[in-house]
């Protein structure tokens, strides 16, 4: 396992530097041209990966020893201690995690190829194996916009259409609408991990018990916190740290709480199963298998209908699916944040024609309407996009957590666990599609607002939105998977109640 | 809304978005707290008063657990309190037990106007002792101290109960805010003291404390506690 699998390098800057330190002679020529982009998007990052602490120590050491690294090595070392909560757990799991890490880097490579994002080898033949950095995609879209910049509108559309052409040319059938396929990366990640590591198949996703998603996300957030605390950054950059925002919307806490419920349910299920035998065990196992099938999110691979959904439709769909769960809570927060984000986008879009017609000083007139003025900078749009994604994801996870708590409180079941699983799986799909829609809408806003911006300013922002949307989708899917043991135990308990009657 | 602290050099002109996103991140410790106790004793209201400095008159029942965070200062150290406000309803008891793990502090709340909530304390205490680590600091809080006329549990008997069981004790009012700040602070002081004298091992699993040694100790920060995010989902 090489050092570039290190999950701590979540920030692009960190990834970049880390790679830099491994192959200084290879990377140095790219450095100057990239630096600007790196600074522009501290928020663009890969999905966090689990990693053994032993490795992090090694990396941190070498980071500190490398004179090339510009930002404080002392700060980097600190995180070793910071993550000590999960330390003991992680070290016992280092073997699994190592394999997983490798799997993920393969997946990212695969995903990038699938999406038509050129690998560094295409950009620069010397950086052949540096496939980890998000700068790949930056470069790609940078080229795209540079090409189209003389025709502002065509250029804006060009970003999307060119990429989608590239995507189609890879021969992969998954993508029908261009970049919306990003939402499937999370799912694909799991599958490829499972492919590469049969032992991991059972746990699916990143949820082996030794390195939970919340732990991984916590480390990511802490890294962002560290950066925010030590660096003097621009206010706009601070606003757009996904991990920090996700935590402040209590996404991390709800995820941790959900993990606790999931773990406890899992051990209860094991206990019950170990006490059963013969026919009783077989029946239960069969039912649990059915339940598991509902968690496979198979629909994800079906062709998507490209129908544009109205504003009420999401609300309607989510409300209906939620009511099928027969629990005493409603996903109000989720719907509210989603609706207000949509209104924001609509407001932005409606302000556009005006902006084009009127001369620039006339825009002042609209500025009176609070933050709904027409003078939104690309940074503002980006910040709002990242914030909305973080908020939407946090509330989705909160919803899953509340759902789990209500499933477990032991009231008489009105719906079967399998039916609930089906509704929840449908809900997960709706949420992920919504994230994909948002990423497209936000990036369209960005491209429209940023016609006058340079590509190296605009494109990192666009990439950032797409990446965080894709990360969001995989967090939601992982959180959904945590509900499986919860439904399993409620299924088991429902059965025991039946047999007692 | 209470004043914000700014950790960066840059001016924070954008009020609404800055409130959340530029909250200070340079704290040295995170303490996990849980708030436990019977339904309706005012757990969520205490949290709300602590994080928002407001009284929430009409708080819905908590489902499972809600969260609140605030950064406080103890002996010049910035500490982020990550507070888990558990559901008090009996039907959630099994669920909320799952949340105790890894708590550095527990606020065990009863209602001074309802004797039954006081009588149930031993059961809550048993859970707290069994499901947390031996170093978890438990503070007993008699809430609704503003309702003196309806008092059903005397200060003295609760004080005695606390002493017998080695608990910190305060009477507080989520409505007036009396002693609310202190309740959270006293527990934090005790936890911090345990860290300082070595009785709480930060490396132990589930100590409930995370330490961030490399965090800069911002000299220009005010010492005013920072309300961050409200915990109750209402």
Name the pair of protein chains with the most residues at their interface, and give those residue counts. A-B, 54 and 47 residues
Number of helices of chain A: 23
Q: Give the topology string of chain B: H per helix, E per strand.
A: HEHEEHEHHEHEHEE
Spatial gap, N to C terminus of chain B: 17 Å
Q: Would you report the number of β strands of chain B?
A: 8
Estimated structural class of chain A = mainly alpha
Assigned CATH architecture of chain B: 3-Layer(aba) Sandwich
**What structural class do you assign from the helix and strand content of chain B?**
alpha/beta
Largest sheet of chain A: none
Backbone shape of chain B: globular
Beta content of chain B: 15-25%
| CATH homologous superfamily caption of chain B | P-loop containing nucleotide triphosphate hydrolases
> Distance between the terminal alpha carbons of chain A, to the nearest Å?
55 Å
The radius of gyration over CA of chain A amounts to: 23 Å
Mean pLDDT of chain B: 83
> Into which percent range does the helicity of residues of chain B fall?
25-40%
